[in-house]
UniProtKB/TrEMBL annotation:
Keywords: Oxidoreductase. One of its GO terms (molecular function) is oxidoreductase activity. This is Nitroreductase family protein. Belongs to the nitroreductase family. The keyword rRNA-binding does not apply. Residues 12-188 form the Nitroreductase domain. The lineage of its organism: Bacteria, Bacillati, Bacillota, Bacilli, Bacillales. It holds the Pfam family Nitroreductase. InterPro entries: Nitroreductase, Nitroreductase-like.
Length: 208
């Protein structure tokens, strides 16, 4: 096995969901931005990147989120809460994204125009529930990538779907276009996370 695989495997196995954070530990805005910059290399449907982030470090705001998140302790003691928001109208960025890829030399003009035409023929007319499913799936990809990056840098996380999404959207004045997907608490563990088991592969995978 390659050294890269060994490193990745170690990070995967070390990452655990932490719910007790060291409330005195601070992660700088710059380092969080650095982690997010790497995380947004995650794939997305047609590269439309339907994710947005609200990074909450203010202590009073974290207390407000704690109430929205059914009083989960980690929302108040972590260094930051990263709210992953889904853009269900990701099609508004079609021209911008493919033009950027053309200017970067990743695609030629013919392919740019073809991709723009295909995306505009698909996403704006897709039912709202289909676009929400796409957005949720893509948000899951970047959330996992972010948590692995955090662990590789020596930090801990827990991903929370258990919060009142309607209240969160209202508290942060989100328009209907944007949907809260998950909250990721980021910080340093105050106590080690406990291990969990996984179902045997032979019970969940079929090779044909």
């Amino acid at each position: 096995m390659s050294e890269k695989y060994d490193i990745l495997s170690e990070v995967i196995h070390e990452r655990k969901s932490v719910r007790k954070f060291d409330s005195s530990y601070n992660i700088s805005k710059e380092e969080i931005a650095s982690m997010l910059t790497e995380a947004i290399e995650a794939p997305s449907s047609s590269n439309l990147q339907p994710w947005r982030f609200i990074i909450i470090q203010d202590q009073e705001t974290k207390k407000k989120v704690k109430q929205i998140a059914y009083n989960q302790e980690q929302t108040e003691t972590c260094s930051a809460i990263i709210a992953v928001i889904g853009d269900t109208e990701m099609y508004h960025n079609i021209d911008k994204i493919y033009q950027s890829n053309f200017e970067a030399g990743n695609i030629d003009e013919t392919n740019m125009e073809r991709l723009i035409q295909n995306a505009k023929g698909l996403y704006p007319s897709a039912p709202a529930d289909v676009r929400l499913n796409i957005t949720t799936f893509d948000a899951g990809l970047i959330s996992m990538q972010l948590m692995l990056i955090a662990k590789a840098k020596g930090y801990d996380t827990v991903c929370m779907g258990g919060f009142n999404k309607k209240q969160f959207a209202e508290a942060f004045d989100l328009s209907d276009r944007y949907v809260p997907i998950v909250l990721i608490a980021l910080g340093k563990a105050a106590v080690p996370a406990h291990d969990t088991t996984r179902m045997p592969l032979e019970e969940i995978a079929t090779f044909i």
